[in-house]
Structures are given as C-alpha cells and as structure tokens.
Design brief:
Chain lengths: 575, 275
C-alpha cells in the first residue's frame, strides 16, 4: 500500500527566519492510520501540520527542500483548494473557525464554495450533522453553543467534504476535561466509521490516549525525535526530555522505581498489566512524605450566601459561600459556562450580586467602586493581548499607578521593583511587541502586582501553554504567592494545575458550589468529577488497582514528591 | 445583548418572501421615494409603508430606539434646510405666500412649509420600509440575495461575517473594559470627557490586537474550506422564488413606473398646489 502522506528529507524555513523550522523530516503515514503528533511549543509540530494542509506554501511562504507527497502528489503543485478536498483541518480555536451565522450554514460552507446545488446541501448537511450529533442544533447561532458543540460543528464542517485525512490542531485546548474526553471518543468513532486517516496534534497526551492511537510522533526542535507505538514510547524517557507531560500514572510508576515494558501495555491504566508493580507502588506510598500543610491564617475574602441572575427566575449562581485565607492559592473549577467567570466578575464588582455579601477582611465591599476594588483585588485576563495597551513595558506596568495620580518618582521606584520581581527588569525599556507570549503574560501580571493587591484573580493562566511554559508561569505565581504573601485565585479547567499548585479547589456546577476541598479529594471523587465535567485523575485508578486504601492520600504524596523533585533539580545547592 | 434592528423569526407572508424580492422592492421603493417630490405619490407610499409595516408584525421595541434617532436627525435636517435656504419653496413652486415675517431675511412662506412637509413625508415613506426589510430578512439570506441580484458574493459575505462576529467582539469589549476599569481607568461619568476619550485608547488597542488574532484564524479557516475557489457559490440559506415573490417583484416594478409617470407628467418632480 502507498503511504497517504510521505515526507522525504524534508526541511522548511519560513521566509522571515534564519534557521529552518523543520529539518530532515522522514515520515510516512498509511491510509486509515491514527497518528498523534506531540511536541513542545515552537518544536515545529504546527509547521508540520501547515505543510500537510497546504497553508505552507500557499499562505506562509518559505524555502522547502526534500519532498512531500500527499496522496501521491506534491501539495505545491496543487492549489490550497485542491488540497482542501483531501485534508480537512479542525483548528484549535472553536470560536474563530465558526464562519456561518448558524450551525447548518457553517457545516455547508465548504460545499457552498464548491457550488453544490442547494437540495444536495440540505441532504449532505443533515447526514453529517447526524454523524456528530448536532442535528437538533442546525438552526442555532454559534453564541448558543457550548465549546464541545462548536467543536463538533467544526468537525462536521470538514467531514462534509468527504476528505480522506482529518487533521486536528490541538483539539483539546479550549475544552473542559470531560468534554475533551468526549471529543476524543468522537474522533475515534469517526475514524472507525469513515476509515479516514487521522492526525492529532496535541500536548495533552494522557487525554488523547483515552482512546487508542496507532503511533505517536514526537517532534523536538524541528526534528522527529521518536516515531513509535504509545506502549513503546511510554517506557522511554523521551517525553520527559522533550518537556511533554507523561500520563500521571506512568510518572508515578517510575517514581516507584518500576521499569515498564511495552508488553505491559502502559498506554491505558485500565488495561495495563500492573501485577509486577503493585508491591513497589505500595512500598513507595508507605515511604513517601506527605505535603506540608500551610499554617492557618486569617480570613481575607469571605463570600456569604451569594446569588446572581441576569433575568429574574434564571439564577446563574446560587448560595455560593466560601472563605479564603491569606496566602492561600486556590482554584475555581467547573465546566465551561458553570458560572466561574460570573463569580470573579462579582468579586471584582463588574456585576452586582442579587443577594448575599462579599467581605474583605470582614468588611462588606459592596460600596467600593470597580476602581477601588481593583487596588485590593487584581484581575489578570486569560490573554495578555486583552490587557496590554501601551507600547513600552515600563509604561504598561506604570499605567495603573499613573491614572491614580501617584508621583512619578514613586511610580519609577514601584515599577522597577515589580519588574525585578517578575524577572522583567532587564527588558524595562523594550517595546512589548518584542516579548514572547510567556513574557507578555508576566507583563500583564506585573501591571496588576504593581498596585500591591492583596488578592490576585487569574482567568485560565495557562490556557494553550505547553508543559514548559505552564511550569514557568505557575512557578512564578507560586513564588509571588510565597514571597509576597499574595492570595491567589485561579479560574481554570486544567486539572494538573489545580492538583499541583492549589491548596484548595472550589467546584461549581450549574451555579451551585458542590465542593470546597483539597484538589486530591475532588479529583478522586467520581460523583463530583462527573457533575463538574472534570475527570478523575488516573492516579486514583492506579491507587485503587494497587489496593491502596486512601487514594486521595496517594495523590497528595505524589504531588509532594513531584514538587520536591522539581526543586531539587532547580536548586540542587540549596538542599 | 441588544436586539435592535436585528432579524427576528416570525411567520408572516413578508417573512416567507425570498430576500431577493424584498431587496428589489426595497431598492425600487427607495429610488422612487428619492426621485419624487409629488405629494400625492408620497402620501400613497406612506400609507402603503405603514400597512406593510403592520403586516410584518414588527414591534416597537425592535425599532423604537433607532426611530428616535431618525426623528432627531429629521428635525435637524428640517431646521437646517430652513436656516440655510429659507426661500427654497419659493424657488421651486414659483410663488411666494408670506405667512409672517420672522427676522432678518427669514420669512415663513407657505411654499417653504409645503416643501419641508414633503421632505418629512419622504422620510416616512422610507423609514418603515427600511425597518421592515432589516427585521424580516435573515442576514444569511440577505447575503445570498445580494449575490443573486448581481453583487459579488465577497460583499455579501463580508456583511455576513461582520454580523457573525459582532456579538463576539462586543463580549470581548466588555471583558477588556472591565479589566481596564479595575486597573483604575475610569470610563464612567465621573471622569471628564477628555480623559474618557484618552482612556478609550486603553480599551481600543487591546481590542484591536485580540481582533487581529481572530481575523487571522477566520481567514485561515475560510481558505482551508475552499472560500474563493470559484467565481460563484451556492447558498444554504437561499430561498427559492415563489408565486408571492414574483407578485412582489412585479408590483414593485409596476409601482415605480406608475409613480414616476405621475410624478414627471407635468414636466418636473414637484406637485404644485400653488398655481
């Protein structure tokens, strides 16, 4: 059989860059295969995808050496349109790629462009809508859909063209864990039904492995570092070296000193052969130390019996109450649209609660204006692009102080101090546009920190970041939490984040607070995880399988161990 | 989210009409209204406009806010005409019936009043038609209809895409505004007008940058799905022309022709009651 995609000694250099982004790629993908492509940001995995779907060379130009064949033809000899009949691409931004005013029109888009007569449009749209289960939504506008539904519409929109290759560019990036799981199941079903070739680009490896993939290709620094089966790959250290997170149970097994073999089938915890390892896991658990609890501190923010609704009779939040202590780092979790953002909007004063009170140091903050609250409770938005409005870094960080009429001398001093804390001092005279995404994120955090808030609220601080950037941002937040004693609230659906970095998780589902407990307890409780569209952690399955009586304690010790290891690696001299 | 002047699904024969026939009616109607100053024709048009407005079951809350704006503009327009050319009526109708003297060069003449009355009536012939067209035509069908009457589908699609993303951009705007207000940028009435204008920049720039990201994604998504491949495209939302559509188009053409014949029968576009 002929490969459907074949790279031979392929290299690519963007026109604006000096170094090639892809080097010496040799890769064949057979028709009907399901392949996962992983790699850290900037490794070239998206460039690889652009070469396959034709955005290179048709939208992004550069120098190509070597050959690439898609269905036996060189993409450069076809047009982007010709290629779009073979490769269907589902982009990661579920909102941005929704083009039509309704679901039906969006699905029909590719066919409309191909001048398919209207009667045929109706039947084909119906068929494919049925397949991805959005038939009831055909007349809905994009604003009325959930993230998962939008993604299914995007899938339908490319499948309607009967493409042979489906390319998914980070399909899980904007989805909560349970919806992500459903998306992976849906991709699997489609592959089985349509016998299509599937390429998935993603760095959330464990979530993709929820269903089988035939092969995993690891891309690092523009080259293919590994091209092997999942079982084979998980027994090596390649993922760790490339800065990609392994499935947590695999890491735990490695901590327990187990040497995994491909024959153990480690790609699924449910079916993996654990017999040889149970004892070592139990031994490790017995010796591992528990996370040190933080000392009890006084209450900073207290939410009392909070209710909110836009329209009477349709409550968005009901009876929310919790107490936040100084220096805590907590997460607010729950599925998209559960009311997490509404809660932060209420705390910041953008909305007024229908009932209930918010107390800061025991004082009701309802009389405070948005600006006054902003001095004590800082809000950092998801994307730094949503905040940065000055061209120079110094001015951006100084903005909040300048509008408050603070003397220029004091501003200079406070901004410089903040820039030092954030590791941005050497760049203080740079334009913001010269910074990387992670550095911009720091600028947006610095511009809030400079006002000395007591509480920092961050909306999805790590969305779309790979493991290395994720760790970088989170370690930075941990540091300011510990050194400045700032209380941090993070709104997230990243379960790793809540598990690894937060002391407590507040779980919201359908407007109710359904849990306020340690993340380890939340993520080992099936009922709560289900209700909040979270996914229970695979560490739980491992612990249960190894007959460990207290799975949440196992999770706690795992996290403590991980932290200690990481600190050892970073500051070996300190210990 | 505000629903002003946006399409609302209702079951009337006007809603069931294809966008093409409504667009043709709308264009011819506006053309006639622009050309004619014949009071008799205009009065017939006003009555007819109000009737179809009623039939289309358009509610006041859908159009009220915009109507008030139009009224304000109309008043300004009428006053401005009088201030800048108080003798336009005399000039047109050839006679001068002074009702009373106001000041300086300003006399109130019957001719001027009649002329300005015609201007006001003209507004009222078009306003209900515009409203009715906007609230009864599905925007995607609108793009399809524009293409059908010969306008490039790029134009139609640009409008359609704009409508698609307006709610998203509005949402983004609110988010950014909130975040900047929390940083201390005052956008409420407390700040002076000048500082408010200055402060707008701190919302506009982030909005532009995040919209740029969006544009990049959208254009890639469109290209990857074959947009612009052919000179023509088909439309999912297009409605086939039915009997009522042909009747509407025929009526529109006929009405325009008759109205223009009546208007120009006496050699100019004005109806003159003064001779």
């Amino acid at each position: 059989m002929e490969p459907i995609i074949e790279f031979k000694d392929f290299s690519f250099k963007y026109r604006a860059q000096v170094e090639p982004t892809l080097r010496d790629i040799n890769l064949s993908i057979m028709p009907g295969e399901k392949v996962l492509i992983v790699g850290p940001s900037g490794s070239g995995k998206s460039t690889l995808a652009h070469c396959i779907n034709g955005l290179i060379p048709f939208s992004y130009t550069g120098d190509i050496t070597g050959t690439l064949k898609v269905q036996g033809k060189n993409p450069a000899d076809m047009s982007l349109f010709g290629l779009s009949k073979i490769v269907g691409t589902v982009l990661q931004d579920t909102d941005g790629q929704f083009i039509g005013l309704t679901v039906a029109e969006d699905i029909a888009f590719a066919l409309e462009n191909d001048m398919v007569p209207q009667e045929e449009l109706f039947t084909r749209v119906d068929e494919v809508a049925e397949m991805v289960d959005v038939k009831k939504l055909l007349d809905n506008a994009p604003g009325e859909l959930s993230g998962g539904q939008k993604q299914r519409v995007s899938m339908a929109g490319v499948m309607v063209d009967n493409v042979d290759i489906l390319l998914f560019d980070e399909p899980l990036a904007n989805l909560d864990p349970a919806t992500g799981k459903r998306a992976i199941a849906m991709i699997d079903e489609i592959q089985k039904k349509k016998k299509a070739t599937i390429l998935i680009i993603e760095h959330r490896l464990e979530d993709v492995l929820y269903r089988d993939v035939d092969r995993i290709i690891v891309v690092g620094d523009g080259r293919i570092v590994a091209d092997t089966t999942p079982d084979e790959l998980l027994t090596t250290d390649i993922l760790k070296e490339q800065g990609i997170r392994e499935p947590l149970y695999v890491t735990a097994l490695k901590h327990a000193g187990c040497r995994l073999l491909p024959t153990d089938a480690p790609s699924h915890i449910e079916s993996m052969k654990l017999d040889p390892y149970r004892q070592s896991v139990r031994d490790w658990f017995a010796t591992a130390k528990r996370k040190k609890g933080k000392a009890e501190t006084e209450s900073v923010l207290k939410v009392e019996d909070l209710y909110f609704s836009y329209v009477e009779g349709k409550p968005i939040l009901q009876h929310i109450q919790f107490d936040l202590r100084r220096g805590e780092m907590i997460s607010i979790v729950g599925k998209n649209g559960a009311g997490k953002s509404t809660l932060s909007n209420l705390i910041c004063g953008f909305y007024k609660p229908t009932r209930g009170r918010i107390l800061l140091h025991g004082e009701d903050i309802s009389p405070l204006s948005i600006k006054e609250r902003g001095e004590r409770i800082g809000l950092v938005m998801q994307s730094p692009n949503q905040m940065i409005s000055k061209p120079m870094i110094f001015d951006e960080v100084a903005l909040g102080l300048r509008v408050r009429g603070i003397p220029e001398e004091e501003i200079r001093e406070r901004v410089n101090r903040t820039l030092k804390i954030c590791g941005l001092y050497p760049f203080r005279n740079w334009p913001v546009s010269a910074l990387s995404f992670g550095q911009k994120k720091r600028v947006s955090i610095a511009s809030i920190l400079v006002m000395n808030p007591e509480i920092l609220i961050l909306d999805e601080p790590t969305a779309g970041q790979d493991y290395r950037h994720y760790t970088e941002i989170m370690e930075f937040l941990k540091e300011i939490n510990e050194s400045l004693g700032i209380t941090i609230i993070m709104i997230t659906h990243d379960m790793h984040l809540m598990l690894e970095y937060t002391d407590r998780a507040i779980v919201i589902a359908d407007g109710h607070l359904i849990a306020d407990d340690t993340p380890a307890k939340v993520l080992t409780n099936e009922e709560i995880a289900d209700k909040a569209y979270l996914k229970k952690t695979s560490l739980y399955d491992l612990a249960v399988n190894c007959q460990i009586e207290d799975p949440s304690e196992f999770v706690e010790r795992f996290i403590a161990y991980e932290r200690e290891n990481r600190m050892l690696k970073e500051n070996p001299a300190d210990v | 989210m505000s629903k002003i002047l946006s399409y609302e699904e209702k079951d009337t024969w006007i809603h069931r009409l294809s966008g093409v026939s409504k667009l043709i009616f709308f264009l011819l109607w506006c053309l006639t209204s622009m050309l004619t100053y014949d009071t008799r024709v205009l009065i017939v048009m006003v009555i007819f406009s109000l009737v179809i407005f009623k039939i289309s079951k358009t509610e006041w809350k859908q159009v009220g806010a915009v109507f008030k704006m139009v009224m304000l503009f109309l008043s300004l327009n009428v006053i401005a005409i009088f201030l800048f050319s108080p003798n336009q009526g005399t000039h047109i109708y050839g006679t001068r019936t002074v009702l009373f003297h106001i000041a300086g060069p300003y006399d109130l003449t019957g001719e001027q009043l009649f002329y300005e009355l015609n201007v006001i009536i003209k507004y009222f012939t078009v306003i209900p038609a515009v409203f009715m067209f906007l609230v009864t035509t599905n925007p995607s069908e609108f793009a399809a209809s524009m293409n059908k009457v010969g306008i490039s589908y790029n134009v139609g699609y640009a409008i359609s895409i704009a409508l698609r993303y307006i709610p998203d951009v509005q949402g983004e705007f609110t988010k950014i505004k909130h975040a900047q207000e929390a940083r201390g940028i005052e956008m409420s009435g407390k700040a002076s007008l000048i500082s408010r204008i200055k402060n707008t920049a701190s919302i506009i720039f982030p909005l532009i940058f995040s919209s740029m990201d969006r544009i990049d994604t959208v254009s890639n998504a469109m290209e990857l799905r074959g947009y612009g491949k052919h000179k023509k495209r088909t439309w999912y939302a297009e409605k086939k022309l039915k009997r009522n559509d042909y009747l509407t188009i025929a009526f529109s053409v006929l009405f325009t022709v008759v109205a223009l014949i009546i208007t120009f029968a006496d050699g100019n576009r004005f109806y003159n009651p003064f001779v």
